[in-house]
Amino acid sequence: MEGVSVKNAYVSVSKLSFSRGERLIYDDVSLTIPKGKITAIMGPSGTGKTTLLRLIAAQLDPDSGTILVDGQNLHKLSRTDLYKERKKMGMLFQSGALFSDMSVAENVAFPLEEHTKLNAVSIQQIVNDKLHSVGLRGASKLMPAELSGGMARRVALARAIALDPQLVMYDEPFTGQDPISKGVLVKLIKQLNDSANITSVIVSHDVDESLSIADHVCILAGGKVVAEGAAEEIRHSLDPQVKQFLNGEPDGPVPFHYPDESVSVPGLKGESA
Ligand SMILES: Nc1ncnc2c1ncn2[C@@H]1O[C@H](COP(=O)(O)OP(=O)(O)OP(=O)(O)O)[C@@H](O)[C@H]1O
User: Fold this and answer.
1) Residues annotated as region Disordered (predicted)?
2) In this structure, which residue's CA is closest to atom 17 in ligand 1?
3) CB 188 within 8 A of CB 158
4) What are 114-123's pLDDT values in tens digits?
5) Whose CA is nearest to atom 31 of ligand 1?
6) Per-residue b or e along 176-194, where b marks 16 or more CB atoms closer than 10 Å to that residue's CB
7) What residue's CA is closest to ligand 1, atom 16?
8) What are the 10-residue block averages of pLDDT along the chain, 273 residues in total?
9) Which of 22, 29, 50, 56 to mutate to test ligand 1, by most ligand atoms within 8 A of the CB atom?
10) Candidate of 17, 19, 23, 226 to mutate for ligand 1, largest count of ligand atoms within 8 Å of Cβ
11) What are the CA-CA distances from residue 42 to residues 54, 92, 127, 154 (Å)?
12) If you take atom 29 of ligand 1, which residue's CA is the nearest one?
């Protein structure tokens, strides 16, 4: 199912290979992230989903293959041009904690102060708008330590969209959130995607939450794309690997164990006994 043709690609990954030391993370992978839609990237732990986001953002370079973002190969750009292009991307990484010594408003203002020449009044207006869009305008003066986990994630989201990005990448946005916060985040991601015509990519283990808003789904395992297509198609897929993943079954075609060369079974590449 690799290399599904999708009209209006915002990100096109073509024949991507990438290794970390001896470990082949991506083996000739092609996939598409459609423009203006929400794409969910799913797959077992350690497959390389975060790595894929870092490759798309050109924080890492492919060993071979190409990644085009809005038609541009970011990996070939000069540092200055790459810096400009990165401003069009918002990233909400798991590790993207708020600055603890800055208020909520100062956190959201930070990218605007770093990357624009806007005056303080304009910055304040944008900060208010962004906080309003995540329902936290009233929290602008609070410090991160005064926020719940769900509120902190929403502030981080307001910061990620401060520069009006065309592409927003969310790495495990729902992790550690209670069901209510998860529901709020799901709605927010969908709302932001639709209202600002953003292209969104969600990397997540939360199958139900991701599938509830995804238009396009890509399931990765063992260095390959095991399934890619419309969310509806994937949900009804009869492919055993897809079913194993969507149903959270520990045993199936996708190995549970991290590859261990010392006990690998001949003929089963990347699978341990
Ligand atoms: N900086 C690094 N140096 C070496 N190996 C790394 C580095 N970062 C990640 N890896 C390895 O690359 C592989 C893919 O990691 P990645 O974080 O992309 O997986 P993931 O699918 O996002 O996992 P999870 O769902 O558990 O977050 C893992 O085997 C990991 O150990």
Assistant:
1) 249-273
2) 50
3) no
4) 999 999 999 9
5) 46
6) ebeeebbebbbebbeebbe
7) 48
8) 65 96 93 96 90 95 95 91 89 79 96 94 96 91 91 90 94 85 88 89 91 94 92 90 80 59 46 36
9) 50
10) 23
11) 15, 16, 32, 22
12) 46
- Candidate of 16, 18, 20 to mutate for ligand 1, largest count of ligand atoms within 8 Å of Cβ: 20
Angle in degrees, CA 130, 135, 138, rounded to 5: 90
Query: Using a 6 Å CB cutoff, which residues line ligand 1?
Result: 20, 25, 43, 45-51
d(CA 259, CA 25) in angstroms, rounded, equals 11
pTM: 0.85
Number of CB atoms found within 10 A of residue 171's CB: 21
Using one digit for the tens of pLDDT, what is the confidence trace for 41-65? 998 888 899 999 999 999 999 999 9
ipTM, 2 dp? 0.94
Residue ranges of domains in the chain, CATH in brackets: 7-88+166-178+203-251 (3.40.50.300)
CA of 177 to the centre of ligand 1 (A): 22
Q: How many angstroms is it from 49 CA to the middle of ligand 1?
A: 8
Of 39, 72, 81, 61, residue with least CA distance to 199: 39
Angle between helices 149-160 and 179-195 (to 10 degrees): 10
Of ligand 1's listed atoms, the one at least distance from the Cα of 52 is 18
